[in-house]
């Protein structure tokens, strides 16, 4: 009987007015997104550097969805590994932890990282899949631009695509209603 109650409670989604999504404070958003930026950037750079190596011809279009799948699987767990470090800085910023305790918190985060990696990784597979779709599209366009015959496009195309996608994502997350972002994951 208890298992049925737990199952029903776990499936119940909180809807307004019980729960109203809100944008995070800028300092908290900075530290939380920093761990995701570091993890996503590290994985994207490693995967693309290993794959492309300044090829003169673009990769086969089906290669990029495979790389995106690897991205979608690896990034949430790496972000979860870095999340305890972010929480130490968030707790210091909001005043929960004193500045002298930062080193102790960082040492604790090393031991929390394996557990949090799996917890966070499992919870954020869906949102990271959305990021992986953008990664696949951007990587494919960049790959095509790098192999383009024009020197200007092949040299600066990657930077332009990266800047455009980054501005689009940051703009959407900053300006979209919190409820919309909540529904996306």
Tell me what the structure shows.
The chain has 185 residues and is mostly helical. The chain has one domain. Helix content is 78%, strand content 0%. It contains seven helices and no strands. The longest helix has 32 residues. The mean pLDDT is 83.
> Total strand count, please?
0
User: How large, in whole angstroms, is the Cα Rg?
Assistant: 20 Å
Based on Cα principal axes, name the global outline. globular
Mean pLDDT: 83
Helix content: over 70%
Ends distance: 31 Å
Q: Oligomeric status of the shown chains?
A: single chain
Biggest β-sheet description? none
- Structurally, the number of domains stands at 1
Q: List unreliable stretches of 5+ residues.
A: none
Indicate the structural class. mainly alpha
Instruction: Give the percentage of residues in beta strands.
Output: under 5%
Q: What's the SSE pattern? A: HHHHHHH
The total count of helices amounts to 7
Tell me briefly what this model is.
This protein is 78% helix and 0% strand. The chain is an all-alpha fold and 185 residues long.
Q: What's the topology here?
A:
Layout: H1 2-11, H2 26-51, H3 63-94, H4 102-123, H5 125-146, H6 151-175, H7 178-184
Helix pairs in contact: 2-3, 3-4, 3-5, 5-6
């Amino acid at each position: 009987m208890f298992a049925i109650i737990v199952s029903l409670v776990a499936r119940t989604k909180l809807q307004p007015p019980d729960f109203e999504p809100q944008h995070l404070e800028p300092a908290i958003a900075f530290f939380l997104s920093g761990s995701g930026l570091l993890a996503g950037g590290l994985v994207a750079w490693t995967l693309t550097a290993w794959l492309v190596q300044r090829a003169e011809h673009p990769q086969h279009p089906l290669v990029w969805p495979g790389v995106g799948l690897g991205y979608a699987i690896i990034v949430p767990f790496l972000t979860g590994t870095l999340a305890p470090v972010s929480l130490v800085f968030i707790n210091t910023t909001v005043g929960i932890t004193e500045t002298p305790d930062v080193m102790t918190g960082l040492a604790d985060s090393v031991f929390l990282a394996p557990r949090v990696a799996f917890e966070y990784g499992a919870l954020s597979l869906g949102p990271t899949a959305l990021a992986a779709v953008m990664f696949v599209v951007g990587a494919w366009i960049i790959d095509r631009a790098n192999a383009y015959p024009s020197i200007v496009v092949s040299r600066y195309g990657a930077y332009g695509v990266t800047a455009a996608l980054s501005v689009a994502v940051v703009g959407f997350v900053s300006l979209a209603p919190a409820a919309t972002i909540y529904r996306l994951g």
